[in-house]
Structures are given as structure tokens and as C-alpha cells.
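Bug #2210: C-alpha cell dump truncated for ABC transporter inner membrane protein?
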Amino acid sequence: MNDMGKLPTAARRDGRAGFDDASIATKAKAARARRRSAIIAWQVAIAILIVAAMYALNATQGNLTMPRPDAVLRQLVTMIGDGTIPKALGQSLTVLVAGFALSALTGIVGGVILGGFPFVGRVMDPFVNAINATPNAAFIPLVIVWFGLYTEAKIVVVWNAAFFPILINTAAGIANANKDLTEMAQAFGAKRRDLFLSVMVPDALPSILTGLRIGVAVSTVGTVIAELTMAQSGLGGLLTAAGNRFQMDRYFAVVIILMILGTLITSGLRQIERRFGRWRIAQAEGR
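Reproduced locally. Full output below:
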């Protein structure tokens, strides 16, 4: 009888626990929604302030210092409509994608080697740091001598800009891979290749993705620098032409395209990084 009398109480407790869990989840969801709304509101407010500041500068300093935002927008629409920006964007993306892909491949492979073989990493560390600390612009004359002024040289400049962030982050992620998992795999007789591919690289994915995100942002800058300093083409060429003619509305229209391009690429990689972050949490919880 006593056991039978306790059943409803236990059921009520379970029901309350379930209700509390649901209530907490609902409150957390609402808090996230409020935080997201607040972030969007602040972003809109900052954008409005920037536009207002542009109008104020235009009114006080003139078009040469700051064009009107509506003039920039009209110029942007015109350049898209007549094919100027699509053509330049295609040229820039060719250099950007090729340079970044090459830097991602070589940077990840090099980082795996440096992080996975401590002796090699220590030998190469001063050389990697020395070259990484050298401004990329210092290599441009050498790149021009070796590769010329055209697409191949621009790809090398982009590769040089993005290679080291990817290399260093990958090496750090591999070197700091979970020691328990590594030792367990070794105890079960895992080969060196399996240890890299099945344990160390998956554990280092967040670090690798961070390096890729930094690398792609630097690649965008490197693409513009290459197009400014070598045979002028792409978005960098449009910037140079507009700047030389003091066409500031045209200049800012190209800048807006560069900002949108960089934001889209970085946001895409950040979403991939978050997805892998959730995968790591699920893995840690044994799901």
C-alpha cells in the first residue's frame, strides 16, 4: 500500500521536473531571441550613424572628401548594370579563390607536419616566425621578378598572405590535440597515418577552421593589394582608376562590394566553425 501511495507523488515530481526543464528551455530561447534583436538593433543604429556622418561630412567638406550615400548607391547600381562590377568581381574572385585554396592546402599539410612532429616544428619555428613577421609588401618586388605582373603573381601574393595564419593555427591545434585520445589510439596499435587522420586532425578542427577564417579575410586584402601593385584588374583596378580620377562615389561603390564580399566569406566560414563546434560538444557528451 505504501509503495502504491508513493507512485502518484513520484509521477508528480517527474512531471514538475519535466515542466521545469521545459520552462528553462523556453526562457533560454526567449533570452537568445532578445539578445539577437538587441544586436540587430545596435547594428542598424550604427549603420544609420555612419550614413548620417557621411551626409554631414559631405555637407561640410564636399564631394571630394566624402560623397553622398545616395550618389554612391546610384553609382553602385550603374556599375552593376553595365557589367563593370560583375566583370571585375569575377577577376578578383579568380585570384582570391585560387590563392586561398592553395594556401589552405599547403597551410593545413604544413601545419599537420609541424604540429605532429615536434622535432620538425622546433627546427622550423624561427624560420616560420621570421617570414610571418615580414610585411607581405616586402615580397611583392621579388614576386614580380619571379612570376611577372599577371594572374600567377597575384595568386602567389594571396597565397603568401593567407598561408601563415592557416599554418600556425593548424600546427597549434595538432600539437595540442587531446593527449588521452592520442595515447589510447597508440595503445590500440594505431598507425601514424591513422593517428593523424582519425584522432589529431578531427580534434584540431576548430583551430584549423579559425586559421581558415583568418586566412580568407587576409586573402581578400591580399587580392586587392596584388591588383593595386601589379597589372591593374579586378576590384583593385577599379579602386585605382576611381581614385586617380577622384571619382569618390565610384570609389566607395567598389569599397562596398569589397566589404560585402569579405563579410559573406567570413560569415560562411564562421557558420562552418560553429557547426563543427556543436559536433565537438556532442562528441564530448557521448551522443
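Output looks complete on our side. The longest helix spans residues 2-61. Marking as cannot-reproduce; reopen if the truncation happens again.
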